Amino acid sequence: MPPVSKLFDFIVIGGGSGGLACARRAASYGAKVALIEGSGRLGGTCVNVGCVPKKVMFNGASIMEAIEDAKHYGITVSSRSFDWGVLKQARDAYVKRLNGIYENNLVKDNVEYVDGMASFISNTEIKVNDAVLKANHILIATGGHPIIPKVEGAEHGINSDGFFDLEVQPKRVAVVGSGYIGVEIAGIFNALGSDVTLFTRTPHILRHHDSMIGETMMSEMERLGIKFERNSS
Predict the structure, then answer these.
(1) Cβ neighbours of residue 166 under 8 Å, at least 6 residues apart?
(2) Which terminus of the chain has fewer Cβ atoms in its 10 Å neighbourhood, N or C?
């Protein structure tokens, strides 16, 4: 049976922030639009493995730090126990609700959402599952993937996406990289009770920010118990 063919004015490959905004705006101008996403989760990095779930984890870490500071305000907190699984379950449910909101917005704006992996079969044709989608205008908004260093043992590590898949809090963590994502994750793990070591290729962290910020952050992180392996390339 030949694949089903559908004709559109505009096809967007990728259901992240850019793809969603572009598809909805085009539809608002009257275009017939299809949006293709292969992960099964709309919202892209920010919603699923970036800003949104990171802020949930950050808030949890901030509460733990506030509990630690409570004694200075005459407040006695009898327990500092923390359940990683409970926080993860609540965080994932929140993200899933956002996925649903994005999907409902596509329906409201008359954008056809296609769940599947896209492949070009011509300049104007995309194959998805058992269908061929045609359009004169096609936007590729698929985002990117982190590059795993080709060093011995790298296959045993995870990237920042994998941080959000952890079902159990690790007791000890090595964070390789000292950009803002590595620094954020190191701080969250530490505040929630993990033993953290951060590896940086230079004597500094946050090299693409003002030097005063990096120096102040490193000093404060060391004060809080995070260990550093400098010049670790």
Answers:
(1) 84, 88, 158
(2) N
- Give the residues across from 6 on adjacent strands: 133
Residue 4: pLDDT above 80? no
Reported as a pLDDT band with limits 50, 70 and 90, residue 178 is very high
Q: How many other CB atoms are there within 10 angstroms of residue 151's CB atom?
A: 10
Does this model's pTM top 0.85?
yes
Q: Which helix (DSSP H) or strand (DSSP E) does residue 45 occupy?
A: helix 44-49
Query: What pairs with residue 13 in β-bridges?
Result: 36, 140
Q: How far apart are the first and last CA of the chain?
A: 55
Cα(99)–Cα(48) distance, integer angstroms: 8
Nearest to 167 by CA among 111, 85, 104: 85
> How far is 155 from 135, CA to CA, in rounded Å?
40
Residue from 10, 9, 5 nearest 140 by CA: 10
pLDDT digits (tens, 9 = 90+) for 64-109: 999 999 999 999 998 888 999 999 999 999 999 999 999 999 999 9
* Nearest-angstrom CA–CA distance, 11 and 137: 6
Listed in sequence order, the DSSP H helices in 70-203 are 84-108, 160-163, 180-191
